[in-house]
Design goal:
One of its GO terms (molecular function) is dioxygenase activity. Keywords: Dioxygenase, Flavoprotein, FMN, Oxidoreductase. Pfam families: NMO. This is Putative 2-nitropropane dioxygenase. With about 425 residues, the chain is of the alpha/beta class. It has a domain of about 280 residues: TIM Barrel (Alpha-Beta Barrel), CATH 3.20.20.70. It contains 14 helices and 12 strands. Strand 6, helix 6 and strand 7 form a beta-alpha-beta unit. The radius of gyration is 21 Å and the shape is globular. The N and C termini lie far apart (about 40 Å). The structure holds flavin mononucleotide.
């Protein structure tokens, strides 16, 4: 008989979960509201700490960004951004607010984790990452997913925190090769990860593959490689595939060959709880396969998948590192700032930067529409209403469909009246 996700459970830290993780989607695309709903339903939801001062300002009306911008206003015209440092105490405050308030609101049997990207180097990679990790643990987060980097120094940064052995810790890797050095370091601190997310080339966000070779990889072959590697080393750590798991049955196929849960994201981008603006969610629904591009415009150096209609592509916006500056490396450099300065020297009337994007500004404005490869199938997960729009989904509808679906079937939500659905959404 065919099985559904609900026939399985993920065991982590002595608890059992519905084996569905909703991945971190920065900047505040995976909102606290979305993560909390997933936890209520018995799964694991992620918030993300990408640009956490900005996120805190939006959520709690704090003034972290304004304060930083004011302090460094004198530097706006300068091409050198090295002086623009984050105040570590303020950063900790923002992280404790974002994570802490979310944890206080948690209900249900599931969990809320935070996604921490190493590539958010913030002009002081070591100290800012340490502050984010420690403050998240202070704020009682249940789990930390280390992402966008090898995290070879992250255990050292966390080791003295009283919750180091109690918080659940996981890492996202795209190969067994990337996992090896992390596990070596982890063994040194006698703190192996509690779970390993294996992200394939069809995921949204940044990809852990090269721009020229990502198409040669397949999650279905990478996951067994990681499982074998763990077996050979007698390590019993849950493995969680991610990237292109579009139906519950896709997940079951992985469970039957040794995986313990799946991490998904794209299907939740068109839920009411997702942080994307309503009109952007409609672009996701309307996307066709030929609209999807993988490019290198992210200044992080990682390839990224997005819709080619993203308004942030090719924009020549002035870098706003005095307010943001999340991609500045430890010398105060960012590939976008360099590309922008190059264009500026040409003295054009209107600057356009075709090869890089200002990730901070454009993610804050939701104008880089990153997505998983199967974004073009979202239209098959709901109704097209008489007014031509797609009916928005609730996180519960998507979660339940993953949880109970069999044989790749997708259960559509109950159909709403065409006009009232948009009116009620506008009023919400
Ligand atoms: C809109 C969007 C934003 C994302 N942002 C991040 C992020 O900030 N950090 C991260 O580690 N992964 C990010 N991801 C990857 C997801 O967490 C997840 O692992 C992956 O997209 C799962 O594949 P799926 O989208 O095909 O379900 C993002 C994915 C999407 C769709």
């Amino acid at each position: 008989m065919s099985k559904a996700i609900n026939d399985f459970r993920l065991k982590l830290g002595g608890k059992e979960y519905v084996p569905i993780l909703v991945g971190g989607m920065g900047v505040d695309i995976s909102t606290a509201e979305l993560a909390l709903e997933i936890a209520r339903l018995g799964g694991i939801g992620h918030i993300s700490d990408a640009m956490v001062p900005t996120v805190s300002d939006r959520r709690f009306k704090t003034k972290f960004v304004q304060e930083k911008q004011r302090k460094y206003k004198y530097n706006v015209g300068s091409t050198d951004k090295a002086v623009v440092q984050f105040d570590l105490e303020r950063l900790a405050e923002a992280q404790r607010l974002h994570v802490g308030r979310t944890m206080e609101a948690k209900k249900g049997d599931g969990a809320v984790f935070v996604n921490c990207m190493e590539k958010l180097t913030m002009n002081n990679p070591r100290d800012t990452l340490q502050v984010r990790l420690l403050a998240a643990m202070d704020a009682e987060v249940e789990g930390i997913t280390l992402s966008a980097g090898l995290h070879l120094g992250s255990m050292e940064l966390m080791k003295d925190h009283p919750r180091f052995n109690d918080v659940l810790l996981g890492i996202i890797v795209s190969s067994a090769r990337a996992l090896r050095p992390f596990l070596k370091r982890a063994a040194k601190y006698k703190r192996l990860p509690d779970y390993i997310i294996v992200e394939g080339p069809l995921a949204g966000g940044h990809l852990g593959f090269g721009i020229d070779d990502w198409q040669e990889f397949d999650l279905k072959t990478i996951v067994p490689e990681v499982l074998n590697f763990l077996k050979e080393n007698e390590l019993d750590i849950p493995v969680i595939p991610a990237g292109g798991v579009f139906t519950g049955t896709d997940a079951v196929d992985f469970f039957e060959s040794g995986s313990s849960a799946v991490q998904v994201a794209t299907r939740f981008t068109v839920t009411n709880e997702c942080g994307l603006p309503e009109r952007t969610k409609h672009h996701y629904f309307e996307a066709e396969e030929e609209d999807i591009v993988v490019n290198t415009i992210s200044p992080t150096g990682y390839p990224m998948r997005m819709l080619k209609q993203s308004p942030g592509i090719g924009s020549g916006i002035r870098p706003n590192c005095e307010a943001f500056g999340y991609i500045l490396d430890n010398h105060g450099h960012c590939a976008y700032v360099e590309a922008y300065n190059r264009e500026l020297e040409k003295k054009p009337e209107k600057i356009s930067v075709p090869d890089k994007t200002c990730l901070c500004t454009h993610f804050r404005k939701f104008s880089i529409w990153t997505c998983g490869h199967y974004v073009y199938r979202l239209k098959d997960t709901t109704h097209k209403l008489e007014n031509g729009k797609y009916q928005m989904l609730s996180a519960e509808e998507v979660f339940r469909d993953y949880q109970y679906s069999k044989d790749h079937a997708i259960t559509l939500p109950e159909k709403k009246q065409s006009v009232s659905s948009d009116v009620s959404l506008a009023a919400a």
